[in-house]
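ingest -> validate -> predict -> emit
validate: passed (alphabet ok, no gaps, 241 aa)
predict: started
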Amino acid sequence: MDIGHRKTIGLVGVQALLQGQLMRWILAVSLAVLAACAQAQEARVLVIGDSIMAWNEDQSIPAAMAEALGAPVRDESVSGARLSHPARLLVGPMDIRSQAPRAPFDWIVMTGGGNDLAVECSCAVCDEVLDGMVTADGMLGAFPDFLDEVSARGTRVLYVGYYENPVGGGPFSGCERVIDTLEARIEDLARRREDLFAIDASDVFDSSDLSLYDADRLHPSPKGSALLGRWIADALKDFGG
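emit:
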């Protein structure tokens, strides 16, 4: 066999190898996309938000919701995430709005806003930060814009307000005033929109019961997450979820 013929056979072999690798890669990507679509189709409830939702991993609020609902719940919450990050395009899921995939869900259950107020204005002079999330009249801001976006896909949103700091105080005790302002704006907006519902975790979370809190006096303990998860699941049922 001459050298030219051997080179031709070698090139054919390399091309076949590359084609085989390309087909395997295409198959792997296709399977991953199909799996993601199947997950989105299976789970009709999506949870997004900050560490309140993400805390306790397999004993988290979303896990307790799934158990109470008897149905899968997709959890995309991330500790430290903000409702309206100033660098949304760069931080990905650290902006809560970016945690929501474009796939349609029946419900999005969410927390958010506490980290914005703590990081961006130290929970002090926060008018600009508050207005950036939702203005006093509810007409402008990142939150109503987000509602418009997901509502167009037929999704309803349940906003879960934060529970109170434990008796004796916690790391966010100095933020209560501005968080109350944020939640009052969202609750007022919920009274005027059919696609938004708002509930307040303080209604069920007893600030004198320290067993509901993590040792850091901020996040829920597994017991606290279980309580909140069951309560949120009941709220979804009440709202027609």
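The first helix runs from residue 3 to 42.
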